[in-house]
Amino acid sequence: MEIKLIACDLDGTLLDSRGRLSPENLDAIRRMTDKGYCFVPTSGRNREQIPQALQQFPGIRYLITLSGACVTQLPEGKALFRHPLSREHADRLLRIGKQQGAAVLLYTPEGVLLEHGALEQRQDRALLEDAIGACRQVGDAQAFCLAEDVQVEKAVFFCRDAAQETRLHRALDDGTFQLCASAENCLEVTARGIHKATGIRALLLRLKLLPEQVLTIGDSGNDVSMLELTPNSFAVANAMPEAKRAARHLTVSNDQHVALRIARLLGI
User: Fold this and answer.
1) Neighbours of 108 (CB within 10 A)
2) HEC assignment per residue over the chain
3) 23-57: per-residue pLDDT in tens?
4) Considering the entire predicted model, what is its pTM?
């Protein structure tokens, strides 16, 4: 079946290991959209963290953000799909995270909240700070959300080590939340059943397309759902093992212009 839509992850996939969007990738996206392909940046970031070069790109009409919790139409910025955590569930996950001693990053409609010291011990601190961008630092995320009545769309817990991540995963893994590892010692949490494939399916329904008409590319745990969605799925060479297992195909690393390689595979 002919490919109509390309859902491409950003960090670790379209962006290189220094978080940059290469001219070669931008040119490949232009050639794909000129040929009528629907190119959809599909990211764990929120809209404000998506590079402006993509948001303002004439041929890009949709964004899937917050790991599938939000689908946005461009250039209007209209939310076509949004699924935050319930306030009860958000309070519960923050309480459990606090009990486990894990610092948290929260995505909310009002912006990004980061607990003080959340990135202090991380070796990838500089890359994470660049990806997160502007955020509000708070001392106690649970207390702040309760006091300000903040709606949480996604949470990312930064764990000290794999053992802490495992304990936190076990504490939260009761069917209430969607859990995945998006980076080393990072646990990403959205509402149950909300993941990148959810966002893609919402968009496919709108565009009257089938999963077989989608090509997906990713590198991490939060890409697994969309890599399993379609037989046209690619994991980059630098992908986490679970992403490589989920994908049907392997492609070049994120430092080798992934969009350019996909364009060539499509004969463009």
Assistant:
1) 19
2) CCCCEEEECHHHHHCCCCCCCCHHHHHHHHHHHHCCCEEEEECCCCHHHCCHHHHCCCCCCEEEEHHHCEEEECCCCEEEEECCCCHHHHHHHHHHHHHHCCEEEEEECCEEEEECCCCCCCCCHHHHHHHHCCCEEECCHHHHHHHHCCCCCEEEEECCCHHHHHHHHHHHCCCCEEEEEEECCEEEEEECCCCHHHHHHHHHHHHCCCHHHEEEEECCHHHHHHHHHCCCEEECCCCCHHHHHHCCEECCCCCCCHHHHHHHHCCC
3) 999 999 999 999 999 999 999 999 988 999 999 99
4) 0.90
